[in-house]
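queue> pop job 88
queue> type: inverse folding (structure -> sequence)
queue> payload:
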C-alpha cells in the first residue's frame, strides 16, 4: 500500500492528475444536488478543491499555475466562439436598450465595489474576488488573478477565497431579486404573455411562405432580376405556376412573369404587405397544394459542409443559372432566414433547395451535404485563435491615469479574438464552425480544470481567512449583488416598460448566471428570458472580464 499512499500524498505528474481528476469528478457529482430547486453546478468543483486543499493535498505550484491558466483560456475562448456571431447583432433594435441596462448593472456593481473598498480599506484584490463571486462570474475571477500576478509578480489567495465566500449567496440573491420584482410589480403572468404576443418583433422577421397572383401591369413581362431591383425588400420567389400553360417552374433570373401567374413567395411579415401591393393579390393556396403540383420538383434541405462555400453570398454561387435550382430559406442555429442574394453562407447552415431531382443531386455535391464533415472538429481555427489571443493579450498599452502599461491578459485577449474570429472568420475563408456539443465540451473541460486549480490553491488558508473576518465578505457580496439589480430592475420595468419575462432574462444575463436563467425559463414557460439573456450575455461577459482587470490595475 506504500505506492498508493505515495500516489495520494506525494508529488509528480501521476499525483497531480489523480488529485485534479478527483476534485473535478466529485465536484461534478455534488453539482447535481439541488436545494430548493437551486444548484451551484460546477462551482462545487471549487468548493471541493478548497476542502482537499485544506486537508493538505496540493499540486506543484508551477504545474498548478499552468493548468489554471490553460483551463481559463479554453473556457474564455469557447465562450467567445459561442457568443461571437451574435455579439454585434445584439446591439440592433431593442438590443440597445437591453445592453445599456445590462451595462448599468455591471458599472453599478463596480461602483459599489469601489465604495466598499474606500470605506473599509479592504484590499482591492479581495474586493474584486467578492465582486466576481457576488455576480457569479468566473472569467472575471480568472482575469483578476492573472492581472494581479502580472502586475505584482505574486499571487493573492484572498481573491479566490473571497469569490468562494460570496458565490453561494450571489446565486441565491439573483433568484431572490426575480421573486422580489414579481411581488413588487404585482406581475400577472397571463397578462405578460398577452402583451408579449402584441409586441413580439421576432415573429415579424421569421421566414413565411405565401401565394400571390400577378395582377400589377407594371411588372407584367418583366423578369425576376428586374422585379428584384424594383422591389427593394428581402424576398424569394420559390415557384412560378404559369397561367397560360399551367407549367410549374423553378424561376430563373430571366423568368418573366405574366398576368395571372401564381407565385410561391418566401418573405417576412414586415414585407408581405409591400410585396403584395407591388405584385398582385394574395390568394389562399397553401403549401400542400403546391406540393401536389410538384410532380417534377423536389424540395430538400442541404447542409453547407464544403469549406470553399464558407463566407460566400448566395448570389455569388449562381445556383439558379448553373443548376436550375432555387434556395428559398437558410436555417442557421435553428432559425429560418430568408435566402436573400446578399446573405453570406456559413459552414453548418442548412439551405432549403427547390429543383429537379437531378439538379438537387448536383447541388448536393457542390455544397457538400456531408454530416461527417460537420462532426469533425476544426482545430486549426481554435489554436490559431488561442495563439492570436495570447499574443494580443500580451501587448502592453498605456491608459491615461494608470502608471504602468495595461494588458488584456490571458482572459481578455482570447475573448476578443474568439469574438472577432467567429464573426468575421468566414469572410476570410477561415472555418470557425464547431458543433454546440464540441464547444460545450471544450468549455466545460476548461472551467472544470480552472475551478479545481483555484480551489486547491486557495484551500490552505481558506478556513483561517473566513474565521478571521472573512465572513463579513458575505455581507459585502450581498450588497454588490442586490443593489445594482434593484436599481436597474426598477428602471427597466417602470421607465423602459420591459416585459417581465424580458426583464428576468436581462437580470440573469447581466450576472451571466445560468441557474437564474433556468429559474426564469421555468417560471415564464417560454423562451423569452433566454432570448434577452443571449442578447446581453456577450457584452456583459466582455465588460465583467475587462472591469475586473481595470479595478486591479487602477486601485492596486
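queue> result:
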Amino acid at each position: 500500500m506504500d505506492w498508493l499512499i505515495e500516489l495520494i500524498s506525494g508529488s509528480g505528474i501521476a499525483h497531480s492528475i489523480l488529485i485534479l481528476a478527483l476534485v473535478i469528478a466529485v465536484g461534478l457529482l455534488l453539482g447535481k444536488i439541488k436545494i430548493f430547486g437551486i444548484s451551484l453546478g460546477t462551482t462545487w468543483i471549487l468548493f471541493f478543491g478548497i476542502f482537499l486543499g485544506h486537508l493538505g493535498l496540493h499540486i506543484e505550484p508551477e504545474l498548478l499555475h499552468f493548468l489554471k491558466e490553460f483551463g481559463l483560456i479554453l473556457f474564455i475562448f469557447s465562450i467567445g466562439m459561442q457568443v461571437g456571431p451574435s455579439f454585434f447583432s445584439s446591439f440592433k433594435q431593442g438590443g440597445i436598450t437591453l445592453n445599456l441596462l445590462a451595462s448599468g448593472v455591471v458599472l453599478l456593481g463596480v461602483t459599489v465595489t469601489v465604495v466598499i473598498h474606500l470605506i473599509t480599506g479592504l484590499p482591492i484584490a479581495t474586493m474584486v474576488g467578492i465582486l466576481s463571486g457576488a455576480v457569479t462570474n468566473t472569467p472575471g475571477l480568472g482575469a483578476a488573478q492573472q492581472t494581479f500576478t502580472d502586475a505584482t509578480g505574486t499571487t493573492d489567495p484572498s481573491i479566490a477565497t473571497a469569490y468562494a465566500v460570496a458565490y453561494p449567496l450571489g446565486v441565491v440573491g439573483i433568484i431572490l431579486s426575480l421573486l422580489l420584482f414579481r411581488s413588487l410589480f404585482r406581475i400577472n403572468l397571463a397578462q405578460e404573455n398577452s402583451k408579449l404576443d402584441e409586441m413580439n418583433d421576432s415573429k415579424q422577421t421569421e421566414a413565411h411562405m405565401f401565394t400571390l397572383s400577378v395582377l400589377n401591369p407594371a411588372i407584367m413581362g418583366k423578369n425576376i432580376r428586374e422585379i428584384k431591383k424594383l422591389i427593394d425588400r428581402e424576398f424569394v420567389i420559390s415557384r412560378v405556376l404559369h397561367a397560360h400553360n399551367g407549367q410549374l417552374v423553378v424561376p430563373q433570373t430571366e423568368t418573366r412573369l405574366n398576368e395571372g401567374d401564381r407565385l410561391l413567395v418566401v418573405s417576412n411579415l414586415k414585407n408581405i404587405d409591400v410585396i403584395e401591393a407591388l405584385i398582385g393579390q394574395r390568394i389562399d393556396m397553401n403549401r400542400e397544394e403546391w406540393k401536389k403540383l410538384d410532380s417534377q420538383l423536389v424540395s430538400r434541405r442541404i447542409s453547407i459542409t464544403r469549406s470553399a462555400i464558407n463566407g460566400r453570398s448566395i448570389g455569388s454561387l449562381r445556383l439558379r443559372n448553373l443548376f436550375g435550382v432555387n434556395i428559398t430559406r437558410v436555417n442557421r442555429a435553428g432559425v429560418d432566414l430568408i435566402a436573400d442574394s446578399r446573405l453570406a453562407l456559413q459552414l453548418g447552415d442548412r439551405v432549403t433547395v427547390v429543383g429537379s431531382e437531378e439538379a438537387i443531386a448536383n447541388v448536393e455535391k457542390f455544397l457538400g451535404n456531408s454530416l461527417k464533415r460537420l462532426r469533425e472538429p476544426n482545430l486549426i481555427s481554435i489554436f490559431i485563435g488561442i495563439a492570436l489571443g495570447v499574443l494580443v493579450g500580451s501587448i502592453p498599452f498605456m491608459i491615461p491615469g494608470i502608471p504602468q502599461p495595461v494588458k488584456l491578459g490571458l482572459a481578455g485577449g482570447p475573448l476578443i479574438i474568439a469574438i472577432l474570429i467567429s464573426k468575421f472568420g468566414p469572410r476570410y475563408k477561415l472555418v470557425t464552425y464547431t458543433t454546440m456539443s464540441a464547444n460545450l465540451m471544450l468549455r466545460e473541460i476548461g472551467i472544470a480544470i480552472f475551478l479545481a486549480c483555484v480551489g486547491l490553491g486557495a484551500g490552505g488558508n481558506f478556513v483561517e481567512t473566513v474565521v478571521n473576518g472573512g465572513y463579513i465578505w458575505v455581507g459585502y457580496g450581498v450588497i454588490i449583488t442586490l443593489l445594482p439589480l434593484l436599481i436597474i430592475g426598477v428602471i427597466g420595468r417602470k421607465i423602459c416598460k420591459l416585459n417581465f419575462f424580458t426583464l428576468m432574462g436581462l437580470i440573469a444575463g447581466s450576472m451571466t448566471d445560468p441557474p437564474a436563467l433556468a429559474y426564469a425559463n421555468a417560471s415564464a414557460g417560454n423562451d423569452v428570458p433566454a432570448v434577452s439573456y443571449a442578447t446581453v450575455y456577450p457584452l456583459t461577459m466582455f465588460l465583467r472580464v475587462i472591469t475586473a482587470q481595470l479595478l486591479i490595475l487602477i486601485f492596486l
